[in-house]
Design goal:
This protein is of the alpha+beta class. It has helices spanning 8-13, 25-36, 48-65, 142-149, 165-171, 226-239, 246-267, 272-279; strands at 22-24, 70-76, 82-84, 89-98, 104-109, 183-187, 192-195, 203-210, 220-222. It has two domains: 17-67 and 213-276, no CATH class; 70-208, no CATH class.
């Protein structure tokens, strides 16, 4: 019996294109219980909730560097020059802004600024406290206020204020600042992204890594990674169960590693023709 349900007409007239390449977490849990749990099997018995917990953890771990879990959002930068991080954000891949030709220009992080918590001080510079004895904090720090009000030109100098124009023109710039696309930094405490003043009104895109377990619709696994998830679950269950022989745990640890490596190779999407086209430039001379 085929695994594809429905008709081809339902597929091409619907909106779930490409869904067949994935398997839901519920189906994955059911398949694991059928294949790995029972009499004369490696796991004699286990609760479904335990399998579900380890399945979610496996999905999270594989999302970081194996699954195609990159997501993206496009927004227009408001006058506040800030945006909230996505609800399922784990780490960013890159920030870009859109030029008039539809080309994405990469933004680079500003390493030499931040948005610290600003303590409100009295006229004599003493700290101020509220009625509960807690420090009173300003809504915005002076660092952030000056950063969003200033302009950045990295064509000849560093973006750090301690470097004057002669530093870049006379002694050479630091390559990490040799760009004019704009800058940003992330305030992890407040879960906000702060952009430089040149970004106001620009359309930017954030490409980021999701943990893949935020919503039910996201909790699906590519079939190339299905075996790796099974091995992750089996190893996690056996390594946390009492009286499991160490050689069994070691065996499944190796199988988990091998299955994850195979999944990475299968999802790497390397095409010989594209690789050949890239390597045609290997003989290009680079002058230093």
């Amino acid at each position: 019996m085929g695994l594809f349900t429905g008709t081809q007409e339902d597929y091409y007239t619907g909106s779930d294109f490409g869904g067949y390449q994935f398997i839901s977490v519920d189906d994955l849990i059911n398949n694991f219980i059928i294949a790995y749990v029972g009499e004369d099997k490696i796991i004699s018995k286990i609760k479904r909730t335990d399998v579900a917990f380890h399945a979610h953890r496996a999905l999270q771990e594989l999302s970081y560097d194996t699954l195609r879990s990159y997501k993206s959002y496009e927004i227009e930068i408001p006058p506040s020059l800030t945006m909230a991080l996505p609800h399922d954000y784990v780490n960013y891949v890159k920030f870009t802004w859109l030029d008039d030709s539809g080309i994405e220009r990469i933004l680079y992080p500003a390493h030499k600024t931040s948005n610290p918590s600003a303590i409100v001080q009295a006229a004599n510079y003493d700290y101020t406290f509220d009625g509960s004895g807690n420090l009173v904090l300003a809504s915005d720090s002076d660092t952030w206020t000056k950063y969003k009000a200033g302009t950045t030109d990295n064509t000849a100098t560093d973006d750090a204020p301690e470097f004057d124009a002669t530093y870049g023109s006379r002694f050479g710039i630091d390559p990490q600042y040799a760009q004019i696309n704009g800058t940003f930094y992330i305030d992890d405490i407040k879960s906000k992204v702060h952009f430089g003043s040149e970004m106001v009104g620009q359309t930017i895109t954030i490409k980021y890594i999701s943990d893949s377990v935020a919503t039910d619709s996201e909790m699906k696994v590519h079939k190339f990674v299905e075996e790796a998830v099974y091995k992750h679950i089996a190893h996690a269950i056996l390594s946390t169960r009492a009286n499991t022989p160490e050689y069994i745990i070691g065996r499944f640890k190796k199988e988990k590693f091998a299955a994850t490596r195979n999944a990475k190779l299968r999802l790497s999407n390397i095409k010989l023709e594209e690789l050949t086209q890239t390597l045609r430039g290997k003989s290009k001379q680079i002058k230093h």
